[in-house]
Amino acid sequence: MSGELGIEGHDPHETNYVVIEFASVPEGFDITNVSQLVLQSAATGSFTVSRIFLEKGTAQDPVTEDITLDASAWWGWDSSHKNVDGKLLGTVTDTWGAIATNLDNADWSGWNKLVVVVDNIEG
Q: Distance (Å, rounded) from C-alpha 122 to C-alpha 57?
């Protein structure tokens, strides 16, 4: 499952969202076995992951639960990568850069979607 951010013509000051709708998960894919969420970039640049949360309910009256951001794995980031104030930050410096957060303790039952909030996309 994947989503794209920072496509050509985007506004880097806009808040961007990657949304995974559990109802559209491919048949046979067991999301309860997912242990990490990885965001990968194919270009140099930077972005901030400011929030990851589970959501259910209606758009007018949503119920959410935050997932703790844990910079447990890093690839392709320079020494400036940080986990500050619940945000995952970094600069991609080679062909592929990725950032991951641990989902081992996530309880997926009863939730409709997983939402990743990404800000300050540059590059």
A: 33
